[in-house]
């Protein structure tokens, strides 16, 4: 025991200076928003490693599984192509789903039928299943129109749709961590491979040591320093008496501290189409996977954040941020009052100097395979909307925050022990509501654009289903649709 | 034709799923494993059987007007719950490897509510009512029912037998319409 202690103390005394220098270096680079390309290199090395793993999996898998493994290899190939922007610009929006005569929140079985691809498409193939939505046959509709009366086979589509949702449904699956088809050497994502062979176990163990013994302490230190920088710098800024100078310094302190915190979470974000980056006041609207989204987007732009007041760790950050720049935090009781919220938003928008407001209209975290219904609230207020699509690369660690399963700190720990959090951010051209467009339609239009760019499935379902029971009206809408078809309308 | 596999043991051990050693024709081991996982996920109270409420916890299913009929057919022993064996057997009728006859039989059972081998006028009415809700008048619905039965009922006994049902539905693409990827 004493030997170990002395060994550790020697190791610490030797490593102390280089480690400190490393941290200082990282923090300095982070705060000025520069990168030496180390993370890019690291991510590429990881990709190679996963590839090697894939191959050895193929070798040591039993004969009966070889086919499965082959499919997996193919899938990695195709996922490499994903690194290019996945959707060509001329492709019609995935929101074609709406074509089948959907109104508002409704999601008819018929659409569902065609969205649902076979389960192997789980990982990266979401966009192809969307293509099928456009090209696929619209069987039921054709049926209803050609013969005006009931046919005994009319029920088959409903039955089939029912069976499909029994086997795999879209709604509950988006609230659970996305399932990876190939293992990324993290136990969390797939336990099935953990003890497959000795060789893999050793690789996994080495990865474990690197992640927990080296990366985790480093990341925690950077993260803590980031939080301290945020709290102290906002405090200093709040003491500055001149308003304009204060706003300016507030922006700098916000960006700097968030960049440091983001390094602590090992985030490697790739930004595309920066010419569309929100610059003026307005709403920045993005799909929501985890609280990290806020940090990722704040690397490049200073935002006003809006949300519920929290206690604990998030509360500390919120109070610190509110000191230096205009953020909108609501008390729990106020959130229900939609008019009060709308009023605060309007007030904020009316000051041209204010930074844009960052909003996640889904209202809940989704596992980054889909986009769910956008709440119309922020689309009613007016002003310019800057859509942003965020797509995380699940191979390096799943960024989805399953809030019903993990607490905030547990989630942060998961993030810090992942390989990295790699994500693509696409800025999209600013959008404004057309004169004759309802807020709901506008919200759907923005959602479709984001889904298409991010390669996500465009769902009509309400994200609140995570906590709520489904409503009865949906079935009635469904019945209405069927009777229309029976009448031959 | 179908490769026979018994339920893998892991399923029996790590869940309270009540699985006796039975043969499943249309699925391979991997598919059974996936279905087992799905079953356990749906089985919210871990009772080893799915109740109607557990099925209805899926929003997509909840909005399907015929879900009650589908669950009824799944529930082969009529105890109001679907156990794993019934679950697998129900799903297997939608397998690509499933034969046309069993698919037709499943479709027939949607209408044959009391499982007496005939679709009566009343049964067809009830199923149609489920499908359209209150959007059609009962008289309109009755007209549709009468017309459908008149068209299908070749032996003029006022109800549709399985054979008569097959004559009407059998020529549609049942192989395409009643196949679900597992």
From TrEMBL, chain A:
One of its GO terms (molecular function) is glycerol-3-phosphate O-acyltransferase activity. Pfam families: Acyltransferase. One of its GO terms (biological process) is phospholipid biosynthetic process. The chain crosses the membrane at residues 6-30, 196-214, 220-243. The keyword Disulfide bond does not apply. It is found in: Membrane. Residues 125-146 have a biased composition (Polar residues). It comes from the Eukaryota. Keywords: Acyltransferase, Lipid biosynthesis, Lipid metabolism, Membrane, Phospholipid biosynthesis, Phospholipid metabolism, Transferase, Transmembrane, Transmembrane helix. Residues 282-393 form the Phospholipid/glycerol acyltransferase domain. One of its GO terms (cellular component) is endoplasmic reticulum. Its main location: membrane. Pathway: Phospholipid metabolism; Lipid metabolism. Residues 120-146 are annotated as: Disordered. The keyword Glycoprotein does not apply. Belongs to the 1-acyl-sn-glycerol-3-phosphate acyltransferase family. This is Glycerol-3-phosphate acyltransferase 3 isoform X1. It comes from Spodoptera frugiperda (Fall armyworm). The gene is LOC118278786.
From TrEMBL, chain B:
Keywords: Calcium, Metal-binding, Repeat. Calcineurin is a calcium-binding and calmodulin-binding protein found in all cells from yeast to mammals, and a calcium-dependent, calmodulin-stimulated protein phosphatase. The keyword Zinc does not apply. Gene3D superfamilies: EF-hand. It comes from Arctia plantaginis (Wood tiger moth). Residues 62-97, 99-134, 140-175 form the EF-hand domain. Pfam families: EF-hand_7. InterPro entries: EF-hand-dom_pair, EF_Hand_1_Ca_BS, EF_hand_dom. The keyword tRNA processing does not apply. Belongs to the calcineurin regulatory subunit family. One of its GO terms (molecular function) is calcium ion binding. This is EF-hand domain-containing protein. The lineage of its organism: Eukaryota, Metazoa, Ecdysozoa, Arthropoda, Hexapoda. GO terms for biological process: sleep.
């Amino acid at each position: 025991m004493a030997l170990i202690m002395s060994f550790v103390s020697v190791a610490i005394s030797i490593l102390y200076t280089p480690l400190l220098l490393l941290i200082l270096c990282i923090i300095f680079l982070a705060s000025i928003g520069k990168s030496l390309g180390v993370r890019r290199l690291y991510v590429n090395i990881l990709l190679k490693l996963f590839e090697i793993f894939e191959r050895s999996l193929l070798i040591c898998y039993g004969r009966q599984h070889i086919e499965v493994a082959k499919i997996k290899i193919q899938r990695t190939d195709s996922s490499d192509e994903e690194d290019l922007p996945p959707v060509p610009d001329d492709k019609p929006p995935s929101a074609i789903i709406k074509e089948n005569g959907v109104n508002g929140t409704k999601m008819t079985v018929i659409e569902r039928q065609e969205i649902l691809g076979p389960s192997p498409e789980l990982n990266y193939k979401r966009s192809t299943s969307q293509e099928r939505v456009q090209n696929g046959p619209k069987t039921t509709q054709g049926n209803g129109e050609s013969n005006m009366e009931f046919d005994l086979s009319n029920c088959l589509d409903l039955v089939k749709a029912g069976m499909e949702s029994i086997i795999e449904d879209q709604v509950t699956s988006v609230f659970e961590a996305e399932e990876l088809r190939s293992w990324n050497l993290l136990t969390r994502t797939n336990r099935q491979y953990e003890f497959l062979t000795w060789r893999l176990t050793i690789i996994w163990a080495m990865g474990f040591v690197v992640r927990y013994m080296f990366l985790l302490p480093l990341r925690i230190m950077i993260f803590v320093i980031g939080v301290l920088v945020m709290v102290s710098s906002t405090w200093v800024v709040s003491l500055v008496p001149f308003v304009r100078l204060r706003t300016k310094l507030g922006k700098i302190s916000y960006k700097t501290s968030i960049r440091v915190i983001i390094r602590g979470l090992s985030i490697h974000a790739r930004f595309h189409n920066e010419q569309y980056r929100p610059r003026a006041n307005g709403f920045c609207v993005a799909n929501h996977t985890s609280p990290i989204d806020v940090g990722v987007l704040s690397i490049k732009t200073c935002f006003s954040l809006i949300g519920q007041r929290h206690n604990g760790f998030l509360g500390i950050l919120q109070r610190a941020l509110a000191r230096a720049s205009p953020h909108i935090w609501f008390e729990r009781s106020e959130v229900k009052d939609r008019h009060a919220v709308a009023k605060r938003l309007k007030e904020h928008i009316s000051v041209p100097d204010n930074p844009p407001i960052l909003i996640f209209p889904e209202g809940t975290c989704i596992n980054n395979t889909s986009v769910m219904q956008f709440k119309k609230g922020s689309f009613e207020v007016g002003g310019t909307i800057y859509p942003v699509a965020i797509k995380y690369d699940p191979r390096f660690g799943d960024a989805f925050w399953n809030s019903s399963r993990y607490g905030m700190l547990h989630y942060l720990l998961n993030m810090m022990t992942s390989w990295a959090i790699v994500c693509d951010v696409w800025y999209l051209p600013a959008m404004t509501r057309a004169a004759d467009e309802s807020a709901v339609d506008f919200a759907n239009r923005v959602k479709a654009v984001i889904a298409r760019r991010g390669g996500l499935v465009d769902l009509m379902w309400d994200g609140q289903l995570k906590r709520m029971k489904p409503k009865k009206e949906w079935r009635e809408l469904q019945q209405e649709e069927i009777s229309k078809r029976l009448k031959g309308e | 034709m179908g490769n026979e596999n018994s339920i893998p043991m892991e399923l029996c051990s790590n869940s309270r799923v009540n699985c006796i050693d039975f043969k499943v024709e249309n699925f391979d081991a991997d598919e059974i494993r996936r279905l087992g996982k799905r079953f356990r996920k749906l089985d919210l109270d871990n009772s080893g059987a799915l109740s109607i409420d557990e099925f209805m916890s899926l929003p997509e299913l909840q909005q399907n007007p015929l879900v009650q009929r589908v669950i009824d057919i799944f529930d082969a022993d009529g105890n109001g719950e679907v156990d794993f064996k019934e679950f697998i057997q129900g799903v297997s009728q939608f397998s690509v490897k499933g034969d046309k006859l069993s698919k037709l039989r499943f479709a027939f059972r949607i209408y044959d509510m009391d499982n007496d081998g005939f679709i009566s006028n009343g049964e067809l009415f009830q199923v149609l009512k489920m499908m359209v809700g209150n959007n059609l008048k009962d008289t309109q619905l009755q007209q549709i029912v009468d017309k459908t039965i008149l068209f299908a009922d070749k032996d003029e006994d006022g109800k549709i037998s399985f054979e008569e049902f097959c004559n009407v539905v059998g020529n549609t693409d049942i192989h395409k319409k009643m196949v679900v990827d597992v």
